[in-house]
Amino acid sequence: MPQTLLDGEYELIKDGSSEANADMEKSGHGAGPDARNIKAIRGSYNGTSTDGNSGVVLIVMCGQVRYPAQPRDSLLDGMRKADGMSEPKPASTITPPGSDVDLECTVMLSKDEDGTATIPVCAWGDENTAAYVAFLTPAAAAQDPDFVDLDAIAEQVAKVREEARQPIN
Q1: pTM of the complete model
Q2: What number of CA atoms fall less than 13 Å from residue 46's CA on the CB side?
Q3: Residue 102 pLDDT more than 90?
Q4: For a tag on the chain, would you pick the N or C end, based on fewer CB atoms within 10 A?
Q5: How far apart, in whole angstroms, are the C-alpha atoms of residue 27 and residue 24?
Q6: Distance from the Cα of residue 62 to its chain's centroid
Q7: Phi/psi zone of residue 84: left (φ > 0), alpha (ψ -120 to 50 degrees), beta?
Q8: How many CB atoms lie within 10 A of CB 101?
Q9: How many CB atoms lie within 10 A of CB 156?
Q10: pLDDT at position 157
Q11: Which whole-number Å values give the CA distances from 158 to 36, 85, 108, 117, in the listed order?
């Protein structure tokens, strides 16, 4: 689990990988029948700037994956089905400049007793990892879902992907 993301803009505050693996063992990993050696990684990050509370949630499945879209879509479906979550419009496939993988990007709405927050999310799947990155920032939370710049979010997620992926030893 990286200690920072986006060149130090976010710092790890909680490594929830043990809980993520336990959850995966209970409910299955959703990576498909041909997936092998699947492990879960979950990290919560706080922003390091002083311009307001911001955060990033990184959820990753690592292992050997034959059909990368399946675990990617499974992770997004898990978020869609969470209490209080909704998706106002379908996800978009975006390939950020310089990226070797397509990202599925969407805007989720999280509704609770405090109101509704907009959460931009992008996910990737490749032969070794599937993950999603959700941005929890005051600016994004208050934004109209129709005006979220998913291309810009996808570029940030491509950077997170480069920082988070580790070579298999």
Answers
A1: 0.86
A2: 8
A3: yes
A4: C
A5: 5
A6: 13
A7: left
A8: 15
A9: 18
A10: 95
A11: 24, 24, 19, 23
